[in-house]
């Protein structure tokens, strides 16, 4: 009899444990995990028309593995796993929905590729035509009436029938308007055109300036003299810009700029070839060291608040990574560094 009672008690405890596990498995957490991702060779991803891919060494982009901690077990894993950064969702994507955030990352990658094509070809002495196509919605002011009508990642094409190619086009037109008035906005979302009415509000910090209360970035199309095809796959965000532009430069010039070295790197790029700060650099240098890279280009700390250079050097010192760290602030600096390298013995 006593044995049966103990057996029943064990079954109840097991059922309770299974129930708790099942319930907590579906309780989401407001966190993302960031871990070292892949180090991927670029000549297989970038093809320049009539370009050359020969050379002893290779250029590599670096990635960060981003995982939403969908339950407390993912979060617990993140707390225990090495080289893992944990951030709250609002720090990662603000008030964007998951769909908006993914659309925004896709835009950033496309914009990064356009910038890389422009910077890489110009560095190689070629002309590139840049055609403004509209304005991409980045975020919303707190008082914006557009949220829920327009989404982050939407491409604004026209307002009241006027083509919009720059922020000045909007501000200039809205000067003759008042808060509370409505305007017709034509925009594109996931390749489909939409038209909606949006109420104007007073822009934060500009008491007399009405607007739709959205942060915008210029969206352009580049028309190079030769075709450049970039296959990024599932990689999102702008941080591969520097390395894309280096690979484009390499194929156009036909120079073996790597001199036999394995050269990885990270950093955003603009059309003028300026390198910008990125996120997840601690995770990237861990992946780079594991992959056996010789050289790692990182964004130089130029402005107050820049941290990439300091952070990556601290990681190298902390973990004893055997990688040459080269901070750069422009594409030209990266090219010049490689030009001065002796061939790898």
Automatic annotation (TrEMBL):
Q: Which GO terms describe its biological process?
A: protein catabolic process; proteolysis
Q: Where are the transmembrane segments?
A: 12-34
Report domain PDZ positions: 105-191
EC class of the enzyme, as a word: hydrolase
Keyword match Membrane: yes
A GO term for molecular function = serine-type endopeptidase activity
> Per the record, a Pfam family?
Lon_C
Look up keyword Metal-binding and say if it applies: no
Question: Residues in the active site?
Answer: 239, 284
Q: What is its EC number?
A: 3.4.21.53
**InterPro entries associated with the record:** Lon_proteolytic, Lon_Prtase, PDZ, PDZ_sf, Ribosomal_Su5_D2-typ_SF, Ribsml_uS5_D2-typ_fold_subgr
Keywords of the record, alphabetical order, are: Hydrolase, Membrane, Protease, Serine protease, Transmembrane, Transmembrane helix
- Lineage, top-rank taxon, reads Bacteria
The protein's matches in NCBIfam families, at most eight in alphabetical order, are given as: SepM_fam_S16 (NF041438)
Q: What is this protein called?
A: endopeptidase La
Q: Which organism is it from?
A: Siminovitchia fortis
